Amino acid sequence: MTGIRLSVPETAARGEVVEIKALLRHPMESGFRRGSRGEVIPRDIITRFECDLDGTLVFASDFHPAIAANPLITFHMRATESGVLTFRWTDQNGEVWSDTASIAVT
Amino acid sequence: MKSPIISRRGLIQTGLLGLGGLALPLNALSQSNASIVIVGGGFGGASAGRTLKDLLPSAEITLIEANANYTACPFSNLVIATERPLSAQEFSYDRLQAAGISIISARATSVDASGQIVELQDGSQVPYDRLILSPGVDMRWGALEGYSQEAAERHPHAWKAGAQTQLLRDQLVALEDGENVVMTVPPAPYRCPPGPYERASMIAHYLKTNRPRSKLIILDAKDSFSKMALFQEAWAEHYPDHLEWRGALDDGAVSRVDANLKTVYTDFDELSAAVINVIPPQKAGQIADAAGVSDQTGWCPIDPLSFESKLQPKVHVIGDATIAAPMPKSAFSANLQAKVCAFAVARLLSDLEPIATTLANTCYSYTTPDEAISIAGVYSNVGGQLSSVSGAGGVSPLNGDKAVRQAEAAQAAHWFQTITNEAFG
User: Is the domain of B287 the same as that of B415?
Assistant: First the structure.
């Protein structure tokens, strides 16, 4: 299981505003909760999300402990040229998850 | 466990012994002429009334219930699949009345816990020494975007038996061959944990038999569920072409319903279907909020020894409305919680402390109209904490042959007869 789910239109007209969705399955453990024996559950969160189109940053977001598990990110992008969108999540320890999707602009 | 049949006998004995222990000081209890009011005439409320009348024959027992008749949820999935008439689910309160319980046919609207008074819709007031609320569940309207009371008239939840059950059945019967059915399942907790999957089995059976080109798609907010392996085994055997289950990992959680478009939306997908059965998120029945016995979760924290509310004195809460995990929200649980609560109320009215006991639950689920599976649990409330008794209970065996499944279906029918007879017969 990759844990990543993307929604990117395969094609778009030049200048069209398209909706992009990206989800990573992640516990987003806040570090404020306690387990059944009273012990603090350590923080484990994504800290950064980036999406680029052939190397040009399209959208980025910093994440903090209040964000729920399995964060779903929805954003809009104006389709200007065809290319490959790369989605990249980085957690607090530097671990990276990424996936790509192509969009053809006509 | 060795086999489900032996373990079920074991747990019934445990349950009876537990209650037998409580029932010992009957002489000390029988003199009370206290006034005990029960709100809600389901399995919990009716069983509580019956038990209290036996324990405290001189007490004044009043049951307040808005509906003239009770329509039972267990077995109503068979009604949806046209395997059973809705009338087989309906029970009157005549026998409770004959047993000396006063029935008030009205909706209770609020409770004044400090004044010990229940207020009815017509403004009249009913005072009590002890109050038992058995309000069941209400839908959490607004928790699922687009799913309102009006939307439920088009896309029934059928999670309270009666007109909603009939509506879903009628929609299923009106389905054209080749049109699909969608069912949505909320996150836990909700009434009857295995209920959606029994219903899915019954709908799939109906489609396979009557609309062979149609299919049921279950969109689930969870990744695992009660008796999952047994259900999936039955689905693979009986409904490979008529039932598809999508869990949360597979984008199964529904975030929005559009009743006009007959469409449900997940994070990444949208599905339209001719029949949409939305089982929405739930909470304790409305009177629990009005009485101040529900907390921010929407459910009611209780002391497991007496089922007295942790938020209001002399108000007890039983059944689906309670926070009683690991006991599930089921008719079996409500019936047994009612008895434990009734014994505790009888003891409290006699200046005796409630004492610890053993509780149990069995949930049967039909996988075809003549085959069933079950899960059983045994629970202890020692120390005011509900916990599962380890090594007790269990589930039906995997790879059970047809005779085992048919025997469980017969047991399920006997269970329904027994519990409805005890509560209403």
Answer: yes
Q: How do residues B53-81 score in pLDDT, each as one tens digit?
A: 999 999 999 999 999 999 999 999 999 99
Asked if residue B162 lies in contact with residue B72, where contact means CB atoms within 8 angstroms, the answer is no
pLDDT in tens, B220-273: 999 999 999 999 999 999 999 999 999 998 999 999 999 999 999 999 999 999
Superfamily of domain A4-105: Immunoglobulins (2.60.40.10)
Question: Cα–Cα distance between B277 and B401 in angstroms, integer?
Answer: 31
- Each residue's pLDDT tens digit, B353-384: 999 999 999 999 999 999 999 999 999 999 88
The reply to whether residue B249 touches residue A5, judged by beta carbons under 8 angstroms, is no
Contact A23 B268 (CB under 8 A): yes
Last residue of a domain, one of B278, B305, B333: B278
Instruction: Please indicate if any CB of chain B lies within 8 Å of the CB of A36.
Output: no
Say if residue B8's pLDDT is above 50: no
- Answer yes or no: do A23 and B249 touch at CB < 8 A: no
Domain boundary among B246, B278, B310: B278
Q: ipTM of the predicted structure?
A: 0.72
Report if residue B101 sits inside a domain: no
Q: Are residues B202 and B319 in the same domain?
A: no
Q: Which residues of A touch B267 (CB under 8 A)?
A: 5, 21, 23, 72
Q: B187 at the A interface (CB within 8 A)?
A: no
B270 touches chain A (CB under 8 A): no
CB burial of A19-43 (b: ≥16 within 10 Å; e: otherwise) equals ebebbbebebebeeeeeeeeeeeee
Instruction: Give me the residues of B, 112-141, that contact A with CB < 8 A.
Output: none
DSSP state of A34: B
Give tens-digit pLDDT for B159-207: 999 999 999 999 999 999 999 999 999 999 999 999 999 999 999 999 9
- Number of domains into which chain B is organized: 2
- Burial class of residue B269, CB neighbours in 10 A (0-12, 13-18, 19+): middle
Tell me which residue range forms the domain holding B156.
Answer: 149-278
Where along chain A do its domains lie? 4-105
